[in-house]
Amino acid sequence: MTDISRSFSALEKRVLNDFQHDLPLSATPFADMAQQLGVSEDEILSTVSKLQHDGVISRVGPVFTPNRIGVSTLAAMSIPEAELECVARIISAFPEVNHNYERDHEFNLWFVVTASSEEHLDIVLHEIEQHAEYPLMSLPMLEDYFIDLGFNLQWA
Amino acid sequence: MEPNKLATQLSAEDRALIKIVQKGLPVVSRPYAEIAERLATTEQDVIQRLQKLINDGSIKRYGVVVRHRELGYKANGMVVWDVPDDRVSELGSCIGRFSCVTLSYRRPRRLPDWPYNLFTMVHGRNREEVKQKVEEIVLCCGLQDIDHTILFSTRRFKQRGASYTAPTNTNGCGGFIRLKTTEDTTS
Predict the structure, then answer these.
(1) Distance CA A132, CA A128 (A)
(2) Residue B124, beta-bridge partner list
(3) How many helices (H) and strands (E) does chain B have?
(4) Which of chain B's termini has less CB crowding within 10 Å, N or C?
(5) Spatial distance between the Cα atoms of A109 and A122, rounded to a whole number of angstroms
(6) What tens digit of pLDDT does each residue of B146-158 get?
(7) A90 — contact with chain B (CB < 8 Å)?
(8) Residue B114 has what DSSP assignment?
(9) Active-site residue (options: A53, A99, A126, A131)
(10) 3-state secondary structure (DSSP) of residue B94
(11) d(CA A141, CA A131)
(12) Structural domains of chain A, count
């Protein structure tokens, strides 16, 4: 469990904020980051490793455009509270499910399902319904209006 | 279900590469050399393939991917809007420009259960901050007459690899003692 109240060093803050997009595709990306920040490559490697280990960075690498390398949908279910945790566990067990949140609404379970093809996606959605034993509402993305530049961290 | 119109054809080599890099680069001095070794190819080939995926729009962003919750942005509100069809693009683009927003998608309505067709994700340190930001968005984009609702996340259910196999008959969720598998309960 990460200590979310922790404070970050000046180097950590810059690593977190300055490289969320347009990381150069050179053979030595971490050395490039180090050079830009005026520290050694080893310092960058250990800082990134630590932030990743702590769960603050989920990864360094590509964020793929939705529905370009596979197909996906946002799914919602309405599950009785007493069964929610258990049904959520069943759903999280599917490798095709990559986010799974409880939300405070009549539709209280929301998750993203990603598959290699439209057919594969339909099969997975059907399997999820069968295993969960509740109907699923599928809301595929129709249009994307968001230009992803990462998340601008406003340090308090 | 509507077709995912943007799906592109990828070579087997691209798929193998994507499978590795979507989990993130190895945090080593020469990450692409390490990936190349796993794919029995060259460092240069890996870099060129990734450059191609960036150029053709398959990769939207390339860099550090942070986790908001661990950074203190503990509240995330999925804000859904019931926008007239001919204004979705305009309003979705307006909302998508806010720095606290990380997603702005049009999705289908599912009447009568679900009237909302524009989905945006708004982050804040707590619920109050998210609500405040939604108010700013409403004023700024002129959404006073657009019905919206905020769905706050209350729990994140984590998946942990393929260590659990779903049962094939009943869901097994009725009244059994359950293992605690959730993390990060937030208010």
Answers:
(1) 6
(2) B75
(3) 5, 6
(4) C
(5) 19
(6) 999 999 998 888 5
(7) yes
(8) B
(9) A99
(10) helix
(11) 24
(12) 2
